[in-house]
Design goal:
The complex is a heterodimer. By secondary structure, chain A is an alpha/beta fold. In chain A, 32% of the residues lie in helices and 20% in strands. Classes of the chains: A alpha/beta, B alpha/beta. At the A-B interface, helix 2, helix 3 and helix 5 of A face helix 5 and helix 6 of B.
Chain lengths: 419, 171
């Protein structure tokens, strides 16, 4: 019988056929822990297996300090050091506070390739679906178990096949497409499912755009959203590894739990209002209501690539951040920081009045860059705007272009077409 | 065959109209400002500390309670603390209409009973005694004497891990 991508991927890893609903122990190629959760992973590991216990494969494990980088509380600093000590004793690589977001590092370093399995203490690990890999965010118990055994239990999810048709408006980008999709399915709308995305508007996305879409699978409670890599993504990945890069495709007679055709027409800039990533309306409508803003944020695992900064930058080229408004920038990784530096964006952003921070998760996990006060309004390229997540203020989620256009105007604003 | 039947008293999380709350996310359950905490005993006091109307949950809930909620419980982050904080308070486990996948994993791995009961809405009042049969995948409300089915069923691996006392105790 035909297999979906997730069934094929699991079968290849196991060396025997796996179908939706099967519970299997799935070997992992890469197991990571962040500074968030990492210390608990170490504690769990040592308590369960002993102080001298070995890890399954030191080369397959990474620590990535991205959540609170560099540590701005003594608690986080201690937790990071617990991880460093553990890593040194066992020859594990640490991507320290200067490296950037772990999931992005796996992609940049050629560790996340089509068909591989990876887990980490990061609920947005399903970002790796952007390269056709099975990335899963897990808690510190799962990760401690995988440090020891190299595997996790896995109930092969049923797959929803989503065929998206539509066309991005000249002032819209991958985030707008993504928000439209999250709006369609709703929070929890793909709960426990694997998703395969198809259709021109998805297939023409570049890698950063695919990262944006895959990252927000979590906001629909999907296990993984796979965007089968096309030629340009495979080429890019090929430049990052010496391993063969081959995409996994679904069989024509694969069995789906549901097939959804989503016709989005002309996709205009979209925005998620507080306090749900699924509370989405066109920016045009929200802008008409006149929403004054205090601050903007560009970055996060959803929109922290060079292309995202470039998209925001274009809105600021002939005008800066409005008086009384701030714009905070956090590149996803050191590589991205290097790109915005060498391409001259940092100079331009600085002149426009932006505040440029070091690489990492910045605005999200620990709210290091971008906590909001009671009554404060933020427009962010991040992926979650839960009540209280980033302080007491109200956070809207939008594309880099919408964030930049809005900080320039001092209110939520439809970006101009720049492409 | 030994039956694994877990009994507790319902503590439903509801809105002003009494309906079970949907989409209770991990920042409502255990806010990110406490993520540096690694001690179980310290986690307890922060449980549901960011859920409007339930900020004092830790003081109100009695050991032996089921946390009862609506759809997509535990959406959001992968933080294990969002499970551990309930265990630290002596809660029996989580019964919800549906549970977000990462949260469900974390509960299973911590041997905290969790079940998804599609017909839960309107079926539970505060203080009702609820019995979850892990193997049969049924939830019995002993006050109303109704039996509700878990769907999807409780998986074999969940039963296996529960029996072992947690993933880290598995051989």
């Amino acid at each position: 019988m035909g297999q979906t991508i997730i069934e094929k991927l699991a079968s290849a890893k196991l060396g025997s056929p796996a179908a939706a609903g099967d519970v299997v122990w799935l070997p992992q190629d890469v197991v990571t822990a962040r500074d968030f959760g990492g210390a608990n992973v170490v504690k769990n590991f040592l308590a369960a297996y002993g102080a001298d216990a070995a890890v399954f494969n030191a080369d397959g494990i990474r620590f990535t300090f991205d959540c609170n980088a560099p540590a701005n509380t003594a608690g986080y600093a201690t937790n990071q050091q617990i991880c460093r000590d553990f890593a040194r004793q066992r020859g594990i690589t640490v991507h320290d506070v200067d490296a950037g977001i772990g999931s992005h590092l796996l992609i940049e370093q050629g560790l996340a390739l089509p068909g591989i399995t990876a887990i980490g203490t990061d609920s947005h690990y399903n970002i790796l679906g952007a390269v056709g890999a099975l990335g899963q965010g897990m808690g510190d118990v799962d990760v401690a178990y995988a440090f020891h055994t190299g595997q996790v239990w896995f109930e092969v999810p049923a797959t929803v096949r989503v065929n998206v048709s539509g066309k991005l408006a000249p002032n819209a980008s991958a985030k707008d497409l993504t928000l439209a999709i999250v709006h369609h399915f709703g929070s929890g709308g793909l709960l426990g499912r694997a998703v395969e995305f198809y259709g021109d508007v998805v297939e023409t996305l570049d890698l950063p755009g695919r990262i944006t879409l895959a990252s927000m699978a979590t906001e629909m409670s999907a296990v993984i959203a796979i965007i089968p890599p096309g030629a340009s993504v495979l080429d890019w990945l090929g430049g990052r590894t010496n391993s063969p890069v081959e995409t996994i495709t679904a069989d024509p007679d694969a069995k789906y739990v549901e097939e959804v055709t989503l016709d989005l027409g002309v996709i205009e800039p979209m925005i998620a209002e507080p306090y749900s990533p699924a509370s989405v309306r066109p920016v045009r409508i929200v802008a008409e209501e006149g929403v004054r803003i205090d601050t903007g944020f560009i970055g996060s695992c959803t929109n922290g690539r060079f292309e995202d900064f470039n998209e925001g930058y274009a809105q600021l080229e002939d005008g800066g951040v409005a008086a009384g408004v701030t714009l905070k920038l956090v590149p996803a990784t050191r590589e991205v920081y290097g790109q915005i530096l060498s391409e001259g964006l940092i100079e331009g952003f600085f002149q426009a009045g932006a505040l440029i921070h070091n690489q990492g998760c910045g605005g999200c996990a620990a709210g290091q860059v971008g906590m909001t006060g009671e009554g404060e309004v933020q427009v962010s390229t991040s992926n979650r705007n839960f009540r209280g997540k980033q302080g007491a203020g109200r956070t809207y989620l939008a594309s880099p272009a919408t964030v930049a256009a809005s900080v320039r105007a001092g209110r939520i604003t439809v970006p101009e077409a720049k492409r | 065959m030994s039956r694994m039947r877990i009994t507790g008293s319902a503590f439903p999380l509801v809105d002003a109209s009494g309906a079970l709350l949907d989409n209770i996310d991990t920042d409502m359950i255990f806010h990110n400002r406490w993520l540096h905490i690694t001690e179980l005993s310290e986690m307890a006091q922060h449980a549901l500390g960011n859920l409007e109307g339930y900020e004092d949950f830790a003081a109100r809930v009695k050991p032996g309670s089921w946390v009862v909620a609506g759809r997509n419980f535990g959406a959001g982050s992968s933080r294990q603390q969002a499970v551990d904080c309930f265990k630290a308070l002596g809660c029996v486990g989580v019964i919800a209409i549906s549970v977000a996948p990462i949260y469900l994993r974390n509960a299973i791995n911590a041997a905290m009973p969790a079940a998804q009961i599609p017909d839960l809405a309107g079926a539970v009042e505060p203080g009702d005694v609820l019995a979850l049969d892990m193997e049969a995948g049924t939830l019995t409300n002993e006050r109303t004497n109704t039996v509700l089915q878990a769907e999807p069923p409780i998986s074999s691996v969940q039963v296996e891990i529960y029996r072992a006392g947690g993933l880290l105790r598995m051989e």
